[in-house]
Amino acid sequence: MLDDLCTDCVRQALARKSFEVRHPADTALFKNRIGSTSTNGYLISAAWLKDWQLAKPKFFDSTTGVYPSPSSPAFAAHVVCEHGGLQPSGEESRKIGQSGVAVLQKLFPDYEPIESSLEACGICTPGGPVADEASKRAHAQQKVRRRYMISLIDQGPLRDLKNHTAGSIDRVTTGTPYNLVPRAWFRQLQDFLKKDTKPMPGPIDLAPLHCHHGGVKLDIRVHADALGFAAVSEAHWAAIKSFYEVDGDSIHFDVDDHFERHTDPAVCMPCREEACVRAAWGRD
């Protein structure tokens, strides 16, 4: 009977259980050794740091049992811009000391700490110096791109994305096709559309939403899972794709006349069943 077990699934289940057991001790050790930040220190994503220290982190991948590194692109972008300098506002980063960095490097071997002494980006800083002609051209292109996107807000297909209810799974229209994007990315887009001094969001990474079987990891019918998605109409999706690279296959979404939610690709039921078993095991 044991020969029928999937070795990959067993390995992932053990990884998840290991995380659940170790996480409280890891975060306690970090808090005890976070270190002085009175000197230069290091910068880390504020969103990552806040979530990782929770008893049940939202960014934890329940399918693979892996928590993303603070150096993963989505979180590193909170500290360093696309040009390699510090984000000028500093609103999305927090400073930690060397001893805190040492703890995180043991837990996340690929974590590369970012020194707070790194210079702010001259391109992203309003009115800041722009080093060379190539940077000037990049800066000019970014301004043109920003102005064009803002024009779409006022008179085109992105106009209603500024509304705080936009993207809500619970407010979609039956029989209308939508596409799903990560909610965290969508909120960054909304922030940019509402206030053009906010940084533009980076590429859309849909790959983590797909499982290794080719289906969708999360079940859109489950409220807790649905919170991780935002739904955008076909018109919005076409406009968004004209500006942003998309990594991973699109996830189509609709609600039928019986208010049943459907995705294409479909939800991977083996992964969902395994996740439910894991959740039940974790509560015991």
Q: In brief, what are we looking at here?
A:
The protein is 38% helix and 11% strand. It is α+β, with helices and mostly antiparallel strands and 284 residues long.
Describe this structure in words.
The model has no long low-confidence stretch (mean pLDDT 77). The chain has helices spanning 7-32, 46-52, 73-76, 98-107, 133-155, 183-194, 223-226, 234-241, 269-283, and strands at 42-45, 93-96, 114-115, 178-182, 204-205, 229-233, 246-247, 252-255, 261-264. With 284 residues, the protein is an alpha+beta fold. Helix 1 (7-32) runs antiparallel to helix 4 (98-107). A hairpin with a 5-residue loop joins strand 8 and strand 9. The strands form three sheets. Strands 6-4-8-9 form a four-stranded antiparallel beta sheet. Strands 2-1-3 form a three-stranded antiparallel beta sheet. The protein is flat, with a radius of gyration of 21 Å. The longest helix is centred in the N-terminal third of the chain and has 26 residues, at 7-32. It has nine helices and nine strands. It folds into two domains: 1-129, no CATH class; 131-284, DUSP-like.
For the record, what CATH class of the largest domain applies? Alpha Beta
On the 0 to 100 scale, the average pLDDT is: 77
- Written as H for each helix and E for each strand, in order along the chain, the element string is HEHHEHEHEHEHEHEEEH
Counting helices, strands and paired strands, the structural category is alpha+beta
Portion in helices: 25-40%
Percent range for β-strand residues: 5-15%
Identify the overall geometry. Answer: flat
Q: Note the gap between the termini.
A: 24 Å
The spatial strand order of the largest sheet comes to: 6-4-8-9
User: How many structural domains are formed by the residues?
Assistant: 2
List the total number of helices: 9
- The beta-strand count equals 9
CATH topology of the largest domain: DUSP-like
Radius of gyration: 21 Å
Largest sheet: 4 strands, antiparallel
Which stretches are low in confidence, meaning pLDDT under 50 for 5 or more residues running? none
